[in-house]
């Protein structure tokens, strides 16, 4: 037992040093805050945070892995950032939703999260002064989220980041065994995505559709003999047992979320730009609008058309490509794109997620 005591004493000593170092870091962050206020510079700087995480991952010698390094330092930065300013982040709720999980992944735990139940309400609140929000934009199985795209077209806020999340479903419940489950609640898409597993493992349960996976989690918190299909994150938020993990039929289910804010982050060298535009109803108009991207060697990562509201069968196009609007070749290419468009708007430039 002497050995354990000795090792723990060493840990106690290291923790004391860690505490001191973290508080020293906090003091420097507070000085940065004063500088930022004086120079009217945004407190939250996603480009700097990404650079810092990437450097630490590169310098890391282990035994901690990349995921652990990112998790630890993101949490530290998130809480120290809170010393600089109270940040409130809106997300598409309810609590425990995949968008909630994406928001935590991007901002860390140290901010105040506020769920809203409609994408429309999020954009309205942003126009009324809310600073940050996270909204879903596309899912690898279901396609793009039309309401988000339509609201991006009119918002005065900017896209300042993106988050990817693997959609993994679990069977979660306040029961402790699958044998007791007679009803399974979830969003119809999640029920459909777990069809095979349900048929094989719970063939006789009643399937009940809900408006979201997290609402299903909320129901089963109170209801006996029932379970929800939702994320492990929802299980954690609602204090439920995970009865089975990864029950989805496909592993290729990813959702991409956009982070909205006021200030375009500075270039990191690996950025994306999102634009929206409409072109005349003419042969080759879309081709001419996109050609400058090709001419300047810019790699397009998304193109999606959406009907223009109040103009039946007219379309506008959402395009994402790699590069930052402050890059010379991006600004030159966009000048040329603009010449070919009726309407043109830059939605934002932001650090590309390389799964951070
Ligand atoms: O470097 C800054 O700008 C800081 O405010 C410090 C810090 C950090 O903790 O490292 C915190 C918040 C910013 O989003 C970026 C980095």
Automatic annotation (TrEMBL):
Source organism: Dictyoglomus turgidum (strain DSM 6724 / Z-1310)
Catalysed conversion reaction: chorismate = prephenate; prephenate + H(+) = 3-phenylpyruvate + CO2 + H2O
Prephenate dehydratase domain mapped to chain residues: 88-262
Molecular-function annotations in GO: chorismate mutase activity; prephenate dehydratase activity
Protein name from the UniProt record: Bifunctional chorismate mutase/prephenate dehydratase
EC number(s) on file: 4.2.1.51, 5.4.99.5
Essential for prephenate dehydratase activity, annotated site positions: 255
Keywords noted in UniProt: Amino-acid biosynthesis, Aromatic amino acid biosynthesis, Cytoplasm, Isomerase, Lyase, Multifunctional enzyme, Phenylalanine biosynthesis
């Amino acid at each position: 037992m002497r050995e354990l005591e000795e090792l723990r004493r060493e840990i106690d000593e290291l923790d004391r040093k860690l505490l001191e170092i973290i508080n020293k870091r906090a003091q420097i962050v507070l000085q940065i805050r004063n500088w930022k206020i004086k120079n009217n510079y945004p407190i939250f700087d996603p480009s700097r945070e990404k650079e810092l995480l990437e450097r630490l991952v590169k310098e890391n010698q282990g035994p901690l892995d990349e995921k652990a390094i990112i998790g630890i330092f993101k949490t530290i930065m998130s809480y120290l950032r809170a010393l600089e300013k109270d940040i409130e982040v809106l997300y598409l709720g309810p609590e425990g939703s995949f968008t909630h999980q994406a928001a935590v992944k991007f901002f860390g735990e140290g901010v105040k999260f506020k769920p809203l139940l409609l994408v429309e309400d999020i954009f309205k609140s942003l126009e009324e002064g809310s600073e940050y929000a996270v909204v879903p934009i596309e899912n690898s199985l279901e396609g793009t989220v039309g309401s988000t795209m339509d609201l991006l077209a009119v918002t005065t806020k900017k896209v300042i980041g993106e988050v990817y999340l693997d959609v993994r479903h679990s069977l979660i419940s306040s029961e402790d065994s699958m044998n007791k489950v007679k009803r399974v609640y979830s969003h119809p898409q999640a029920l459909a995505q777990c069809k095979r597993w349900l048929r094989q493992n719970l063939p006789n349960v009643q399937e009940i559709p809900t408006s979201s996976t997290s609402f299903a989690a909320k129901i089963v918190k109170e209801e006996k003999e029932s379970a929800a299909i939702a994320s492990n994150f929802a299980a954690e938020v609602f204090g439920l047992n995970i009865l089975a993990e990864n029950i989805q039929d496909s592993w290729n289910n990813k959702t991409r979320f956009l982070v909205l804010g006021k200030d375009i982050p500075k270039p990191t060298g690996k950025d994306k730009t999102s634009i929206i535009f409409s072109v005349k109803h003419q042969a080759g108009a879309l081709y001419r609008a996109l050609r400058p991207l090709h001419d300047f060697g810019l790699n397009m990562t998304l193109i999606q058309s959406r009907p223009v509201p109040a103009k039946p069968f007219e379309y506008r196009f959402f395009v994402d490509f790699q590069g930052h609007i402050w890059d010379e070749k991006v600004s030159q290419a966009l000048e040329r794109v603009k010449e070919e468009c009726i309407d043109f708007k830059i939605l934002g430039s932001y650090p590309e997620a390389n799964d951070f």
